[in-house]
## 1
Amino acid sequence: LSTLYVLATPIGNVCDISLRALHVLSLVDAVACEDTRNTAHLLNRYGISKPLLAAHQHNEHEAAEKIVARLQAGERIALVSDAGTPGVSDPGARIVDAVLKAGLRALPLPGPSAAITALSVSGLVNDQFQFIGFLPSKARQRETMLAGLANVAATLVLYEAPHRIIETVDALLHAFGPTRQVVLARELTKLFETVHRCPLSEAPAWIAADPMRQKGEFVLLIEAAQAVVDDGAEADRILNILLADLS
Ligand code: SAM
């Protein structure tokens, strides 16, 4: 059966690629990737040279059709994203969907994902966690979404780009209150990797204390909500956030 290999790549440290992933990359006929320069760089590092097909969020539909046609012609293709696991806040889902609908097979080659990497060193109770990914960029939408998450009894896992970290941490403090723990996991597996855990009330000052702390890629984890004490105060707090959003 023709197979698409959905293959995880490093999130920073180039050595975090599996032996199996390297083996498959050396066998496939082509590699579908988000950014050809990025993937060429990774393959070069391991002495692998393969035709690259661009498959990013702006051409996912056409890329899916091309990949299905090539698989049907008997080729073996690997799908990678720029970093981590394809399909996790990254293109890939539509391509896999098209492959499955065509009656072909998608085989996962597991490896790093920033969310799971951050969770593993968070020390937060994580028998239940909820992956949120990127919050909406518009403040109102973001606030509404966070208000809806305030009572979720699971660790929340968010992705954030460097230019919005200050804004996002302020929004988290506003939505979840001062006492819950937040973990700021920055530049994981890279040279300036930092994992800092503190109550939400202390997070803005921690970030402000050093401009380096505002740079790079972040995973943010928020401690699960405790069982809600039904004194009405928490409900009022959330209702007020939602009402302010409507006005
Ligand atoms: N597919 C990837 C995965 O499996 O983690 C996620 C891709 S998403 C477009 C990129 C986001 O992942 C970044 O903005 C950041 O939130 C997070 N991320 C990726 N690499 C990271 C790293 N080394 N350290 C911290 N966060 C990272």
Note: Residues 11-12, 81, 83-85, 88-90, 113-115, 159-161, 185-190, 217-219 surround S-adenosylmethionine (CB under 6 Å).
## 2
Amino acid sequence: DLANVGVVGMAVMGSNLARNLAHKGHSVAVFNRTASRTDAMIAEHGTEGDFRPAHELADFVASLERPRRIIIMVKAGAPTDATIDALVPLLEEGDIVVDGGNAFFEDTRRREEKLRGLGLHFVGAGISGGEVGALEGPSIMPGGSRESYEALGPILESISAKVDGEPCCTYIGTDGAGHFVKMIHNGIEYADMQFIGEAFELLKGLGLSYPEMADVFATWNTGDLDSYLIEITSEVLRKVDAATGRPLVEVIVDAAGMKGTGTWTIQSALNLGTPVNAIAEAVFARAISSSPALRASAQKALTGPDGKVDVADRDAFIEQIREALWASKVVAYAQGLDEIRMAAEQYGWDINVGEVAKIWRAGCIIRARLLERIRSEYAAGNLVTLIEAPSIASGLADAQDGWREVVATAVRAGVPVPGFSAALAHYDQARAPRLNAALTQGLRDYFGAHTYRRIDREGAFHTNWSTDGAEIQES
Ligand code: NBP
């Protein structure tokens, strides 16, 4: 009687995933490098389902039915490689190794190629939803061979979150595609949180109390902005610190941490040439928050408005902040999905962007009402970019007056809104009939003879800037 599936790594994510699998009726082999962690998990949760704990990796592997399905949930990076290296000699042709950690997609491509050469399947599966998601139903983004998905997909789908009975798990594409999509999910998550932070600072600038701000977010959560992050923003703002009696957010140090997925999103976008300025500003906003030396010296040297927001109609401005938040969020999603489209071209992945939006509707951190609209827009037709979709473009048109007013007011008040303004700049750049790039190209030709193309003739041209000023056509 062999186990259906195995999980390596019994820290919080792995043990919750193993429990989720067991709750869904699968028999689950479990292993952790340090055996005491396996024992602790079994002591606490062993009665919840059919677990097969092992202290030796060889026993763990031998306890699995074939093809073996092994989900690795260990620390990303070297620990993942160490785990794969220990497993590989114990496996047989056709076995499936799944990395459920937050791996960089290039690492996944490398590992997949190596294991494919050994006759094994390697699946890089992005898993979002944190520890609660792992236990109760995450959003799962598996990449690897289609063949492996036939054996693995039903198990992953059984433990994923569901929307109207549909699993938040679908085959994404070959090799690193799943981890790439998970990386973009996290990049969008950074942007979402930055926009929420900007809205919060503007509401505070208006003079709202913390309970009032919590109410505003709770109200927003009943409309187009309905999402997990807006919902928990309301709860975090409402929380009072037991020690001081002050709002908890007021006593939290204003330095945001990061573990790398936002940075990867930007690095990959730079490599692909995808404009993702709104997501980039969210990553840089965390960077400046965590630059104490820079901030301390700048605070001493620099002056400016104090962040108080003075408007004639407070409620009308709050509605405009909501519009700025919604429109910026749409642009960040568009930028992330653009990056997926460009990566798919670059790496030969056949990614269905509408399906990606579909599996983000529940289980994951960026789950939001907007994703259903994104799914249906991509299902309705081939989009180059989300912001061209009819219902999205009209929503942006409706929101833009408020969005512009919020950015202008924030700039005058000295409230930094890099996310709102970057998203708005993207909107204006993308729709512009002409960009200032023509001048840039003229300058490049002047100092570097980089040539330019003309609007009226084919070919590359160069002006003899330093001699007779004549234009020559490059051969
Ligand atoms: P951690 O990221 O804290 O990793 C701890 C696990 O890695 C333990 O099982 C540990 O074994 C094992 N490990 C280490 Br460290 N070095 C190892 C090595 N050289 N060989 C074998 N095993 C090794 O666990 P986590 O927070 O559960 O996250 C697991 C994965 O899921 C990570 O990739 C993470 O990025 C990803 N993830 C986490 C979340 C979240 O909310 N936490 C959300 C989404 C994805 P030991 O007990 O013997 O030290």
Note: DSSP finds 20 helices and twelve strands in the chain.
